[in-house]
Amino acid sequence: MLARLKRNWLYLAIAVVIAFFILIPFGWFLGQYTTLMIFIGIYTIVTVGLCLLMGYTGQVSLGQAAFFGMGAYISAILSRTYGFNPWLAMLVAAAMTGAFAYIIGYPIFRLKGNYLAMATLGLGLIMWILFRELSQFTGGPDGMSGIPPLSIGGFVFDTSFRRYFLVWFFCLAVLLISQNIVRSRTGRALRAIHGSESAAESIGINVTHFKVKILALSAVYASLAGSLFVHHLRFVSPQSFDFLASVKLVVMAVIGGLASVWGAIFGAGATRILSDEILLRFGEWDVIIYGLILVLVMIFMPEGLFVKLKEVFERLRLRYRQRGTEP
Amino acid sequence: MNGSVILETRNLTKAFGGLIALDKVDLSIESGKITAVIGPNGAGKTTLFNLITGVYPVSGGEIYFQGALLNKVPAHKRASLGIVRTFQHVYLFGNMTALENVMSGRHPRSSYGFLEAALRLPKARREEEAISLDATKYLNLVGLGTHADQDALSLPLGQQKLLAIARVLATEPRLVLLDEPGAGLNTLEKRQLSDLIRNIREMGISVILVEHDMPLVMGIAEWVVVLDSGQKIAEGTPAQIQKNAKVIAAYLGEDME
């Protein structure tokens, strides 16, 4: 009886959240935040991949912007320069980025801990340099514009209002898929690797294979996000994929709670709002703020801010309930 | 000696740089028995386990499992062949509940992958249900059924060690290697452990254990192998080993001359 009542409340809460998200882009509601929400959706997709890789599997990536950028540039170049259908460009970008991650995964995962972090950092830097220097394809440091929008039949995603729903459709799909993976045999294998590689290997889990696959999946997510990013902005430049971009992605994953798929929305949201609304005033100094956030969160709540907040909320609720039953 | 041999080593050698941890060891482990490997610290017992389970590559010699050469088989494949181990330091998955730890042990006996998981296809749902049921069975077997939803690391050490055994039993092994299962346990827990190890043997699983607790070893082992400084210095029944002069010398450092 109580359980059913509780479940009904849960459904109601979910319905309210969904309604809220649907209403956001309407002008009379929170329309002025539509663009911000599009970016939050895009970054959530990347963050979810990073949560799977870092939070669940325990493998650091300081170069996730490389995959994000690959998706963006491959989509941009194929659809603008070579006239591919943007959807096809997006698909090709995801496949190429995933395959690339899969191939470099084997050598990169011979490394562990800090060394792995350094290797992924190097990967991010190399890709960023390539985006800048291969100017006959990428337009160099100035970037390239005139990238066509996505469309279905005659329906063109040419307004932020429309793209908002497109991006959040992808975001929701990625979140649901990731949640399914986390609660599966595969998810257990990933957590086992995080828990103890020796023990995981000893009960038959192919550690390298799972690490490489989850890297490839996170790369595919990042690539999808990159494609959505360029077809939204209709413009791409290397700045979006520099080292700071990778660091910001890590900050998003860490704030979102490394071991929580849905926390990614919170992490991406908090970080985007912070950088778009507040840190702009600090100019170049924002790096220091990100570093500070990262250090503080890792020291005081290594399970992530989102998970910590959830814990605090639970504790408050418990205390409230206990007080309620007292005479 | 009767019965078939489940594991055999010939001239098994492991060198770490100049240090020879294991020196031309010949072993023949009988199927369905409890074999103990004993020896002073640094005798090469854990190295032997690491070679059998594929943690390190061998430096020389061969390992045969049920007659097939094991040397080149990667570690994770040995578990699906039926060789599993526990660790001195337990190595439970701390980010999981007790039940989830055992469910991880069903990994080599289930097959659905990324795609089936991502889309929650019927195969994934079916297998996941079976994994959970089987895992519960093994958790009950070691007497931890009531602790299923507890965080693995919140259990006391004795129960953690039982949980680690449940996790390896869930892989349906043929040969279980137990690395110091009794270390850190009290008398009652040791008795439970002995019963469990006998129980494992009753299930038709061969057991090799490394253990320092002599009463425990002598109480349950049917065959004892003694290593010292990387070499096999004796083997026999517990009664024979207890009287063996070389073994006594190795433990007490007595002068043989």
List key phrases describing it:
heterodimer, A: 327 residues, mainly alpha, two-stranded antiparallel sheet, B: 257 residues, alpha/beta, Rossmann fold, 2 domains, six-stranded mixed β-sheet, four-stranded antiparallel β-sheet, 10 strands, globular
Question: In DSSP terms, counting alpha (H) and pi (I) runs of 4 or more, how many helices of chain B?
Answer: 10
| Fold-level CATH name of the largest domain in chain B | Rossmann fold
Strand content of chain A: under 5%
Question: What is the CATH C level class of chain A, in words?
Answer: Mainly Alpha
The spatial strand order of the largest sheet of chain B comes to 6-7-8-3-9-10
What count of structural domains of chain B? Answer: 2
Kindly report how far apart the N and C termini of chain A lie. Answer: 24 Å
From the 3D structure, determine the CATH topology of chain A: ABC transporter involved in vitamin B12 uptake, BtuC
Strand order of the largest sheet of chain A: 1-4
CATH class of the largest domain in chain B: Alpha Beta
Decide which structural class fits the backbone of chain A.
mainly alpha
Query: Which residue ranges of chain A are poorly predicted, with pLDDT under 50 across at least 5 consecutive positions?
Result: none
The share of residues in helices of chain A is: over 70%
Shape of chain A: globular
Contiguous uncertain segments of 5+ residues of chain B: none
Number of strands of chain B: 10
Shape of chain B: globular
CATH architecture of the largest domain in chain B: 3-Layer(aba) Sandwich
CATH superfamily of the largest domain in chain B: P-loop containing nucleotide triphosphate hydrolases
Tally of separate domains of chain A: 1
